[in-house]
């Protein structure tokens, strides 16, 4: 039996693993995330499918990177919406499918497509049409470690996982044995109004963790969880984070105060994306494979994201950017 933490203002059910009836808002969104990272950080990647039915499009992102590897990334922010009841995206240059095989249990992701190779990951913010292209394929499975973590006040949940299968990059097929997380969210999601930090990983003693903080201008007990080795998922309110940014607005490191597991997140390899609002406002999304260094000596790898909408420096992070030399 999968353990579900029940602390929220809404009740999670197995039916929530499927698609939901869209709301009336133009920015109503339903998204599925899948990420993974090997224990040594040599290989990592993620897939995100975001459905905007009232905007008439989907976002599909898939990437692979790792220590010493260039970024291989496919980004389509004007993908066709899947057919009714489907989460498969079939577009010019790629075919992508995903399925939840067992509610709150195993899930599979497949991709067969063309991606760009970027030695400088920040080139993903611009026009990549002239970059080298290469085949990118996923045949991956996410298996739940212990339980499910629904957020308290919004329709979103996270599931810590082990990840197995293969990744194909060009002519190279790589067997994957990794840790990761998958999540599912639905509701109005305005990427151009609020900055946030989201982080998830696994330490070398087998502890999985997750934390999230949005910069709203005031403090609340931000959500987090840990899963100790062989133990049960544990809800831990009180997560906070502080980040230092470079002069180029890239995160240099973040102090993550996961209750019971304070650590530093140091980016190892970036996999960023740029997104533009319906009225033309840009936002940057510098997601990165990170090395996590816990205060008690444990280390690990996973993913962290620092979303940067218009005006993000004035909404919670500006003083930290200044410390880094802005």
What can you tell me about this protein's structure?
The protein has 1 helix and 23 strands. With 326 residues, the protein is an all-beta fold. The longest helix is centred in the C-terminal third of the chain and has 6 residues.
What attributes characterize this protein structure?
globular, mainly beta, DUF7064 domain-containing protein, DUF7064, AttH-like fold, disordered C terminus, nine-stranded antiparallel β-sheet, 326 residues, 1 helix
| CATH-defined fold name | AttH-like fold
The main pleated sheet reads as: 9 strands, antiparallel
Mean of all residue-level pLDDT scores: 92
Please give the alpha-carbon distance between the first and last residues.
Answer: 50 Å
Q: What is the radius of gyration computed over CA atoms, rounded to a whole number of angstroms?
A: 18 Å
Strand order, main sheet: write it out: 16-15-14-13-23-22-19-18-17
> What is the CATH class?
Mainly Beta
CATH architecture: Beta Barrel
Q: Structural class of the helix and strand makeup? A: mainly beta
Q: What is the N-to-C succession of helices and strands?
A: EEEEEEEEEEEEEEEEEEEEEEEH
CATH H-level homologous superfamily name: AttH-like domain
- What is the molecular shape? globular
Counted by DSSP, the helix tally is: 1
- Helix share bin: under 10%
| Number of spatially distinct domains | 1
Number of strands: 23
Strand content: over 45%
Low-confidence stretches: 318-326
InterPro entries: DUF7064 (IPR055492)
Organism: Actinocorallia longicatena
Domain DUF7064: 191-310
Protein name: DUF7064 domain-containing protein
């Amino acid at each position: 039996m999968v353990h579900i933490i029940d602390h929220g203002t809404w009740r999670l059910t197995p039916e929530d693993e499927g698609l939901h009836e869209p709301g009336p808002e133009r920015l109503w969104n339903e998204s599925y995330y899948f990420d993974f990272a090997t224990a040594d950080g040599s290989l990592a990647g993620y897939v995100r499918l975001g459905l905007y039915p009232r905007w008439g499009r989907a976002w599909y992102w898939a990437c692979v990177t790792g220590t010493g590897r260039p970024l291989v990334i496919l980004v389509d922010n004007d993908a066709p919406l899947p057919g009714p009841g489907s989460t498969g995206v079939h577009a010019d240059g790629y075919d992508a499918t995903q399925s939840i095989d067992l509610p709150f249990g195993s899930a599979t992701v497949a991709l067969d497509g063309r991606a760009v190779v970027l030695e400088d990951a920040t080139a993903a913010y611009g026009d990549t049409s002239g970059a080298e292209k290469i085949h990118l394929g996923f045949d991956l499975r996410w298996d739940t470690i212990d339980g499910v973590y629904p957020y308290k006040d919004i329709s979103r949940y996270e599931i810590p996982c082990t990840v197995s299968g293969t990744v194909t990059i060009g002519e190279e097929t790589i067997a994957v044995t990794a840790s990761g997380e998958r999540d599912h969210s639905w509701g109005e999601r305005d990427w151009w109004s609020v900055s946030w930090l989201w982080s998830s990983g696994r330490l070398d003693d087998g502890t999985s963790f997750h934390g999230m903080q949005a910069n709203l201008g005031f403090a609340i007990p931000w959500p987090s969880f840990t899963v100790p080795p062989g133990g049960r998922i544990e809800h831990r309110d009180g997560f906070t984070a502080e980040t230092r940014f470079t002069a180029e607005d890239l995160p240099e490191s973040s102090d993550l105060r996961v209750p019971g597991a304070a650590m530093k997140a140091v980016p190892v390899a970036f996999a960023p994306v740029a997104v533009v609002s319906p009225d033309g406002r840009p936002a940057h999304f510098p997601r990165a494979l990170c090395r996590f260094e816990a205060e008690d000596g444990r280390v690990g790898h996973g993913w962290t994201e620092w979303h940067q909408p218009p005006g993000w420096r004035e909404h919670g992070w500006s003083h930290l950017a200044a410390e880094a030399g802005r």
